Every structure is written in C-alpha cells, then in structure tokens.
Amino acid sequence: MIDLHTHTNKSDGTDSPRELVNKAIAQGLTVLAISDHDTTSSWEEATQTLRGSMQLVLGSEISCLTTDGISVHMLGLLFDGGHPEMQIMLEETRDGRLPRMRKMIEKMQSAGIDISMTDVEAARPEGATLGRPHLADALVNKGIITSRDEAFQGMLNNDSEFYVSHAAPTPVDAIKMIRKAGGVAVIAHPFASHRGQILQVSDFQNLVEAGLNGIEVDHRDQNPDERAQLRGIARELDVVITGSSDYHGTGKLNALAEFQTSPIEWEKLEAQADKRRVVRA
C-alpha cells in the first residue's frame, strides 16, 4: 500500500509524526509520504521512528495561489530538505498565514460569531503550521459547528464570505522551486469542487511545462467523474497518476491509505527526483 499525502500535528493533523509512522507500519503500508503544510518540521521525528520494511517519503504540501486568486496545493516530495531557497519559500508562506487568520477571525466577529485568535491558538498544537483546520477546531470547541468537515463545507469553504487568501507562490513558481530542490511535484486534489473554486483543464499544460510530475487523481474530495477526467488529462500529458488519503488523523474523515498509488506509478515518480531520497530503516 502506497499513500503519498498525509499530515501530522506539525501542521493540521492530529497525530504526531511518530504516531503516524507507527500507524502506517501497523496497517501494512509499504510507502508513506508525510507532507505537512509549508514545513519540513516533521521529517526528523518521522525518520527516527521508521523501522521494518516500510519506506518513508519526506515532503511538504505547499500552499499556492494562481494569478487570479484560486487556491492550489502542490505536493513537493523527495526534495532536498536543506535547500536554502526552498526553505525560504516555505517560511515566507508560513509567515503569510497569521495575518490571513486574523482577517478571517475579524470577518467572523463582524458577523457576530464568538471566536478569537486566542481560541484558535488554544486549538493549535505547539509548533504546528497555522491553518484553517485550527480555526475549524476552535469553532468546534466552542460549539459553533460540529466538525471540521462541516466547517470546510460551509464557513471555511473557498467561496465563503469569511474566506481570505494569503501570500503564497503561484503553482508554477512552487513547481519550479520543488524541481530546483531536486524533488518531484504532484498537484493535490485539483478538481475538488466541493472546496470551492477549482482549476480548469486548460491550466494543466502550463504546469507541465513548468515541470509538474504528477496529478493526484484518486482522492475523496473528487467525485468519480472528476477522477475520470483527471486520469485522462494525466495520460494525455504523460504525467504520473497518484492516489492518496490526505490523512489528518481524527480531524477529518479521511482514513489512512483509503486511496493509494500503484507501485508502477510510484516507481515512475520516484525516478524523476534528482536523487534517491526515499528513507529506509
């Protein structure tokens, strides 16, 4: 079983890197990618926990914005964690999350919703990359909504009156940086229409020209028709087809390895990094 998109409590998941690796081993995964939002802070603990035959893929899910303001997430896998320009891009993207959160909270307060930055900080694990899921958790803790899923289908959806974008690289810039750092770039859930705005078919050619290696096709936020369309796009553009869980622990319904990448597609993807960086025990 190969799962190329998961999160720990170093961003917006609920499991520590150690807990996630242990779960993956117990569940029989052969390859696990950890891709916390805009950070590599989970890498060391995950690597130290690895044992047995499971392989660990280190990466990050990079928050991007298109030139017309559409939110896109780019998975960077197998890049050099010590690449200075890559780390600067991740740091700058993280820095943009605080003013964004404050603006979202201000919008909610103006609408009469009893929520504060203190509530969000209380819901965020120490050291975690700040994100909308922590705002969702704060809203749950205060009884305003019942779950993260409810939040992202409503109040925190990209089309919500409370949504605020933040400073972020364009998808093309993120791809170029991932490739410059020696890694591979896979666009995450690009047709997840229930999240709000999505990419168009015509957008993919520019991404491939920038160096895109793969498209995340099999993902719970994309319906069967969207997956079929993405599969066709990937084949036409000759990029790797991936499937993954986008696991966040107890914060979301997504189950570890509920969608997977085939070994053949994974081999094709790994071969496109500039070095063999898969971690083995």
UniProtKB/TrEMBL annotation:
GO terms for molecular function: 5'-3' DNA exonuclease activity; 5'-3' RNA exonuclease activity. Gene3D superfamilies: 1.10.150.650, Metal-dependent hydrolases. Residues 2-66 form the Polymerase/histidinol phosphatase N-terminal domain. Pfam families: PHP (PF02811). SUPFAM superfamilies: PHP domain-like (SSF89550). This is Unannotated protein. It comes from freshwater metagenome.
